[in-house]
Write a structure and sequence with these properties.
Length: about 260
Amino acid sequence: MGHRTTHLRRRVPLGIGLAVLTSVAFPGDLQASVDYESVPEMPSAASQRLALSDVGDVVPDNKPDGTLEIPEATGNTGAEPVSDDDPSSLDTLETDVTDDTDHSPAQAEVTVSYDLSVLPKPVVRMRELIVEAAAKGNIEGLRPLLGVGNNRTELSIGGYEGDPIDFLKEISGDGQGHELLAILLDIFQTGYAHLDAGEPTELYLWPYFYSVPLDSLDDRQMVELFRVITAGDYEDMQAFGSYIFYRTAISPDGEWKFFVAGD
């Protein structure tokens, strides 16, 4: 499929901005299981000055030369002096305040599966309809499957104007949409990722490559990847840091959410 992806890379350059795809956001430290996570406003300089009426006699006025005179402590405070020569006496402040926060990078778990039987029935049905239309080779067969209005299926990260089928033909290498239909068939043969389970942004995404680090793929998965992209595409993606070829997603209620490529 080298002739296909080369053409598409020309149409979908790596430099375009990444749109927020519902949710899919995709961090670097992802863990995949296969069935096989306000800065407060800084106070102004004026608000940081101590009023002498509040300080009293503890801090005297600044000297004319700009230095601040610090009064010596008087009386027995009960604390033993700290010696600069004794490293063990430094940094020994003890407190009963504990920090139980986990400061390690947040990791999102991605569930990858090939089992279509566990998919919600609306997802299964929409996938079947898309595959059936693509296999017939007539891109007009996708028209009734594309959402409309606020539920319109996203076909381009940068957006598009006009008729969706005309747009798909325009970006297809052959000008008739056959290339994109073939890509749809290819990616629906891969495993899928279940993202944001139980959230409003929940999705079933094909191929799962988009949701996992490429360097985590084993030999079998690499062969699966090369059924969709070329070695040249893979080199570009390694430089970019993630899979950026075509991917598609269906919501749990069977809406075809997007079919896009690019970064």
